[in-house]
Here is the input.
Amino acid sequence: MDLGLKGKSVIVMAASKGLGKATALQFAQEGAHVIISSRHESDLKAAVSEIQEFTSNNHVSYKTCDVTNPADIKELVQFAIESNGKIDVLVNNAGGPPAGGFEHFDDEAWQNAFELNLLSYIRAIREVLPYMKQQRSGHIINFTSSSIKQTLDNLILSNTFRAGVVGLAKSLSQELAQDNILINTLGPGRIATERVEHLDTVRAEQLGVTYDEVKSSTEKSIPIGRYGNPEEFAKQAVFLCSAANTYVTGQTLLVDGGLVKAL
Here is the structure.
């Protein structure tokens, strides 16, 4: 299937590693002009080099961006316009907030999580919308968590603000449809990333067991019987932001191997 992404201008936030990097690679494989961002330039350089080598797509570049800094987001979007003349796809992504329960966090922690996992998405969308509206087309995908369907233990910050992203996307899907701008939300389950490894390590320490025991126990709860890999997740993001999707908007999709049992 031709996904119609050749030459499309794509921004992938927080893409020097993990799900963001895997998604950028999939877009690059389809011939898109991809700009990746994160806070650390050395990681970005390495990621761009790896993606270019793997895909033979030289239209992959980077711009450093702290997603909690509104000036950085503005500069990133302007860089995309200067580089590609348009923005066809925005992939919103950010690292997860710290693990912990309600009593673990003060106002500063709540504010930091809000700015990282909700306000950064709002700001990025605000910056790209004028260009998407002008061309009367665009795709926005928001990466969240399986907690958008079923809350996760010891992750109250993530549970709270990821749900806010769903409300944001659903509302915007109504407002932006007239301009042919589609927005959807994608939630990973247990995908084999550094973030999931960290959470499993924290869980193991809390339970007084090994990391392998925690992972094995979790895999038994997944109908497919294993953790997903980043490529499997990324392919869903690329499809939802491609020419193959012209009618799906305001929806949430979990990529979780059947883990979440909620409807």
